[in-house]
Specification:
Elements (H helix, E strand, L loop, with lengths): L1 H19 L7 H30 L2 E2 H34 L4 H4 L2 H29 L8 E2 L3 H4 L3 H35 L4 H37 L4 H27 L1 H28 L1
Antiparallel strand pairs: 1-2
Helix pairs in contact: 1-2, 1-9, 1-10, 2-3, 2-9, 3-5, 3-7, 3-8, 5-7, 7-8, 8-9
Length: 291
């Protein structure tokens, strides 16, 4: 809970920085970035609530569990598509600078965000519909340990998700690879504004690293089940380590790295943090004198 609180403060400072400056509203890059921050913050909050409720009460109502699982799965799957969208935005900015203004508009950016949410919502709802078709309705009135494999345990769901994840990550990986190669070629051909091209290339490369971190959320859980079977007495510890490595660390690194790398955003973000620190210090001194 303390780790979640610390990360929530960091994400909140980023969102506040974005909202305080109107020029960020007009740039598709920063709109996609702040959407990623909000998505990761919501995902982290949902997963934290999921784990705390599960461990505090051991078993919860399956209908409540299904809401948490669907929301957490939706936000988890959204991040790689956001990274792909940000990579495409950088690709258009560098490779088609004359067409950037009418291709990457505010309305199209918002439509892309809605499309990402629609696509990522489809997968958990198909899990729900398959479970409703194969299991009695009483399954959702039982009290269970809230876990995706327990709630949606049908084998067809497992096969379906393996196929979807393969296609899903292949698409995102190919998108990042293609945009990175095109930006590299543009960097070699361009004799001017090489610094801007280099930054865009490094940004896409960073997206690739973030994608690998996101893939942990899909790869590691498949390794969790055999580990729990081998060491059933340590199933809580295994789940906690999985939670720390798969959700906490990647969701912390992605916005932090991107926020610090972008010079424009970093400038106003650090200014906001400095102002907040100066406001806190005088209040501490007053309290000390009064005491």
């Amino acid at each position: 809970m303390l780790v979640w609180l610390a990360l929530s403060v960091i994400n909140g400072s980023m969102v506040t920085t974005f909202l305080r400056h109107n020029f960020f509203y007009e740039d598709p890059r920063y709109i996609m970035f702040i959407f990623m921050v909000l998505n990761d913050a919501v995902q982290l909050s949902l997963v934290t609530a999921l784990y705390v409720v599960s461990y505090a009460f051991s078993r919860i109502h399956a209908s409540v569990c299904s809401v948490l699982i669907i929301a957490a799965t939706t936000t988890t799957r959204a991040t790689p598509l956001i990274l792909a969208g940000m990579a495409i935005e950088r690709y258009i900015s560098i490779c088609f600078p004359l067409h950037y203004g009418h291709i990457c508009t505010l309305s199209r950016t918002l439509r892309l965000i809605l499309a990402i949410l629609a696509l990522t919502t489809t997968v958990p709802f198909t899990d729900l519909f398959i479970t409703l078709a194969n299991k009695p309705l009483a399954h959702f009135y039982a009290y269970i340990f809230c876990d995706h494999a327990i709630l949606f345990g049908d084998y067809s769901i497992y096969v379906k998700n393996c196929i979807v994840d393969t296609v899903y990550f292949s698409f995102v990986f190919l998108t990042l690879f293609y945009t990175y190669c095109k930006i590299m070629l543009t960097a070699r051909a361009a004799s001017t504004d090489y610094i801007s091209v280099k930054r865009a290339r490094n940004t896409v490369l960073l997206h690739g690293v973030q994608l690998l971190l996101c893939m942990l959320a899909f790869v590691v859980p498949s390794m969790q089940t055999p580990l729990i079977r081998l060491f059933p007495m340590h199933h809580l510890e295994i789940r906690y380590v999985n939670y720390l490595l798969v959700y906490i660390i990647p969701r912390f690194l992605s916005p932090m790295i991107y926020g610090f790398r972008d010079e424009k955003f970093r400038k106003y973000w650090l200014r906001y943090l400095t102002c907040r620190t100066k406001k806190v210090r005088p209040s501490i001194k007053v309290n000390v004198k009064v005491g």
